[in-house]
Backbone:
């Protein structure tokens, strides 16, 4: 082979290596993003549970629903138990969401609870933050999955030892009565 | 919280994105947060105290209007200096895909980054086809916000993924007590606000409808507020109506509030390209009934006509008949006024800013790391000293986590 073809080949290999390293760097960022988003989601769920236990103490609210809420948060995910929960167990968070939706349905009027106004606004914020954190987590996870499925990533094992991210699904709607709080 | 906000467009030129950023910053400052806005501007003396200059701008046609943006070596230096000095907990980029300090910040920073997408238009062909180059930078944005369903759809078309919708807000307190202009009759004034030389703002539709309305109400005034050539407008209207048309040119936002307060009805005949329709909420906040074209964005703000009257987009005849009907029906106007005020309160910035703070809270990194300049893992970083892996730094770097 002529010397010029060698040069072309070497340059080509170098460029390819730079490309691979760039994809690996990008994937590393994506994995980190998923990890951080998962931690943030766990923290927001824990905060929501904490606020909900205060809500369960408001005596003016329906007592059946308050009991249901207490039970739901007892079973739900705390920051400590975040790691042990597998993907299928996230649905238990839906129960908290559903109970909150029934407590604060369309007919709920915040002006009837002047002494708990701050707490109720905090609840509205907590449910929003859970929804946001879940959206951002799933956005990150889906993107990372998409990049990991590319043949170049699989062939050269650019993902290293990082495990495949999973999409998390539970009911995250904001109670209608809290929408403009 | 220390919040760094990047505005992609010239601060000295009024526009929706700039207004959004200004209202957001002021609402955050009122709540006691530290805010610094990095923005290009061609008039540094007019910058508020919480803003940092990113340099002057060049004009480019974009999204049907002229966007004044900044994208040159000086912008790189200034953006990176600003990032280094700011020590922000949150970096909030607006229109993160526009060639502006926004994209420079996305490229050079790492940490909790939030991006807000405003535009709801198909972008230029060239921009669309460059997306794959921008993708790795866009991925650094952790939380993406769209100001409307339309903006969200546009964003997903371009990048995929997901975004949450937090609508634009209106600073109700700046509008609700606006003083009416002295020389207009609150019962006999029709108002249009927007650039007169921009077809998508729809002034043409209104001008075609007006002769019929003027014939019914000979002492009615049409007030056109917005920059543009007066001669070109008058040319299109029969000379006998000229005395009933008044021009205000470009006005400040306080003066705009006064214009709304003096109008019987505010007409928004826009043809498209509107992502949200904040101007509708501003009119409603002053207590002025709104008559708007039935663009998806306007329909959403007016909740399919519950909070204001709608007419078929680009239909001058229907606009004329709705306008005449509304001018005759005082009760209906009062009803719409009250409904409008209620609607505006739902979009008050004091509420919207809470939702944005919730976004900040949900992305603030768990370990309390703030936003910093970081090129590791990027081509630029590999080729320069900035991104080289330093053994001492590696210890607390998350590359080892």
Residues:
């Amino acid at each position: 082979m002529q010397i010029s073809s060698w040069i072309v080949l070497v340059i080509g290999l170098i460029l390819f290596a730079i490309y691979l390293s760039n994809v690996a760097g990008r994937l590393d960022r994506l994995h980190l993003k998923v990890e951080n988003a998962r931690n943030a989601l766990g923290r927001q769920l824990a905060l929501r549970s904490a606020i909900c236990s205060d809500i369960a103490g408001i005596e003016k609210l329906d007592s059946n629903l308050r009991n249901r809420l207490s039970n739901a948060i007892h079973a739900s995910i705390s920051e400590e138990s975040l790691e042990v929960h597998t993907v299928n167990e996230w649905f238990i968070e839906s129960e908290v969401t559903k109970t909150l939706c029934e407590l604060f349905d369309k007919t709920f009027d915040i002006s009837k609870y002047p002494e708990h106004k701050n707490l109720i606004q905090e609840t509205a914020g907590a449910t929003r933050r859970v929804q946001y954190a879940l959206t951002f987590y799933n956005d990150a996870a889906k993107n990372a999955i998409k990049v990991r499925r590319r043949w170049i990533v699989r062939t050269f094992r650019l993902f290293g030892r990082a495990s495949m991210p999973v999409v998390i699904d539970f009911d995250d709607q904001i109670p209608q009565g809290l929408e403009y709080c | 919280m220390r919040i760094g906000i990047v505005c992609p467009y010239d601060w000295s030129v009024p526009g929706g994105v700039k207004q959004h950023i200004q209202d957001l910053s002021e609402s955050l400052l009122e709540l006691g947060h530290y805010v610094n806005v990095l923005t290009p501007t061609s008039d540094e003396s007019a910058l508020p105290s919480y803003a940092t200059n990113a340099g002057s701008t060049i004009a480019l046609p974009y999204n049907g209007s002229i966007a004044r943006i900044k994208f040159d070596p000086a912008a790189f230096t200034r953006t990176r200096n600003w990032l280094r000095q700011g020590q922000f907990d949150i970096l909030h980029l607006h229109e993160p895909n526009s060639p502006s300090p926004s994209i420079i910040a996305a490229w050079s920073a790492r940490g909790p980054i939030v991006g807000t997408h405003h535009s709801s238009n198909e972008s230029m062909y060239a921009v669309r086809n460059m997306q794959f180059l921008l993708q790795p930078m866009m991925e650094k944005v952790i939380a993406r916000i769209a100001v409307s369903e339309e903006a969200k759809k546009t964003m997903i078309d371009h990048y995929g993924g997901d975004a949450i919708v937090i609508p634009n807000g209106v600073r109700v307190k700046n509008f609700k007590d606006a003083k009416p202009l002295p020389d207009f009759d609150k019962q006999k004034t029709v108002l249009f606000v927007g650039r007169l030389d921009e077809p998508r703002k729809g002034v043409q539709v209104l001008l075609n409808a007006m002769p019929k309305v003027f014939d019914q109400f000979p002492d009615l005034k049409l007030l056109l507020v917005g920059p543009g050539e007066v001669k070109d407008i008058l040319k299109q209207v029969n000379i006998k109506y000229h005395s009933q048309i008044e021009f205000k040119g470009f006005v400040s936002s306080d003066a705009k509030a006064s214009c709304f307060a003096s109008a019987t009805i505010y007409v928004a005949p826009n043809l498209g390209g509107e992502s949200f329709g904040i101007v509708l909420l501003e009119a409603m906040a002053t207590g002025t009934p709104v008559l708007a074209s039935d663009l998806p964005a306007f329909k959403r703000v007016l909740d399919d006509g519950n909070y204001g009257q709608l007419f078929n987009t680009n239909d001058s005849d229907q606009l004329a008949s709705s306008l005449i009907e509304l001018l005759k029906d005082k009760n209906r106007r009062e009803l719409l006024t009250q409904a409008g005020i209620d609607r505006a309160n739902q979009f008050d910035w004091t509420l919207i800013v809470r939702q944005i703070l919730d976004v900040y809270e949900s992305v603030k990194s768990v370990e309390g790391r703030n936003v910093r300049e970081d090129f590791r893992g990027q081509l630029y970083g590999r080729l320069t000293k900035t991104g080289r892996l330093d053994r001492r730094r590696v210890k607390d770097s998350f590359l080892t986590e």
Remarks:
- The first strand of chain B starts at residue 2 and ends at 6.
- The radius of gyration of chain B is 23 Å.
